[in-house]
Amino acid sequence: MTEQPTTISESVIGKASTPSSTTSPPTRRSTVHRGFPTTKPDRSDQPIRIEGLAPLSLKSSRPAASKAKFTHQLQQQERPNVHKSNKASSSTPPTSTAASTKPASEKFPKKLQVFPFVPGATTNELTKAHKFFFSPAEFVKSATDFSMIPENTMIPEVAFVGRSNIGKSSLINGLVNRNGLVKTSSKPGHTRMMNFFKLGDKLSLVDMPGYGWRSRDEWGGMIISYLQNRKNLRRIYILVDPSHGLKESDTQIMKLLDSSGLSYQVVLTKMDRLSKTKYSTAKAEIEAELVKGAICCFPLVLGVSSKTKDGLDELRAAIVKAGQLSL
């Protein structure tokens, strides 16, 4: 009997139906597109890395010191609110401390300790002021009553006040470089009227009666009304003798000006009678007294001498600046 050949279909079917002795699990295939796999590789066997934390495999290999440091950092990350609240609580001082019980006057003193720094006049300002005060000066009028005071004009005005025999008339004569413009006398209380002078149609100077011995009657309602109602009054210069310091009458006139809101400046006269050391000491003592209670006092004490002409240019420059004159 001849053997019949098997067909291709039968052989394939027979091979497929024959069970395999070793069966392998199906492998995961990935289609390749331009050389890169389209599916992510399986990394389930790798440790998971969290931002800021090391994997478990690395933790076990850390030394003891680094482990303790890492644990401290982890604890700080787990409770950030507690850390911030501790900072906030530490920044606010407790209310039961002794510092909080101090009175407000000790924390924030309201009174000045020293005068603030005021720069002096420049050389150019001194030169212009010196030239201006050599302009023609003339006498305008004397007033014994408030109704006799010259009409208020737009010309700036400054007044000189002080105790009797303090040297007001001599100072004005020295400022304008004319010895006979203002009458002077060695007797206290010689000036009993308000004397008005004009300098170059730009500035008005007023020589006030002295207050103190034999001149209290002159310091009545007329002068107070003038000081409080004169609109073109720019500054009042209070003359003080540094040999005697501030007197009670000086303090009273300063309180009157402070209550009226009038600007004034202290000028020390007859500085040539003291040595430089004694003059500096007297000036420092007067400044210390002014700082205690002065309100409207301009924070620059000047010193002049009508005899030696020292300090006159500095006073001239101060008057020009107070009157806001354009030279």
Task: Categorize the overall geometry.
Answer: globular
The helix content, as a percent range, equals 25-40%
What is the number of helical segments per DSSP (H or I, 4+ residues)?
Answer: 11
Order of helices and strands: HEEHHHHHEEHEEHEHEHEH
What class would the helix/strand composition place it in?
A: alpha/beta
Q: Biggest sheet: strands side by side, in what order?
A: 3-5-6-4-7-8-9
Question: What is the percentage of strand-forming residues?
Answer: 5-15%
- The Rg value, from CA coordinates, equals 49 Å
- Biggest sheet layout: 7 strands, mixed
Identify low-pLDDT runs. 7-21, 82-90, 96-100
Number of strands: 9
Q: Overall mean pLDDT score?
A: 75
Q: Could you give the distance between the termini?
A: 150 Å
Cofactor: Mg(2+)
Family: Belongs to the TRAFAC class TrmE-Era-EngA-EngB-Septin-like GTPase superfamily. EngB GTPase family.
Keywords: GTP-binding, Magnesium, Metal-binding, Nucleotide-binding
Protein name: GTP-binding protein 8
Folded structure, characterized:
- This protein is an alpha/beta fold and 327 residues long.
- 35% of the residues lie in helices and 13% in strands.
- The chain contains eleven helices and nine strands.
- It has helices at residues 8-17, 56-59, 64-78, 80-91, 104-107, 123-132, 168-176, 221-229, 248-260, 276-293, 312-322; strands at 32-33, 36-37, 137-143, 157-162, 194-199, 203-207, 233-240, 264-268, 302-303.
- The strands form two sheets. The protein has a seven-stranded mixed sheet with strand order 3-5-6-4-7-8-9, with helices on both faces. A two-stranded antiparallel sheet has the order 1-2.
- The N and C termini lie far apart (150 Å).
- The model is unreliable at 7-21, 82-90 and 96-100 (pLDDT under 50).
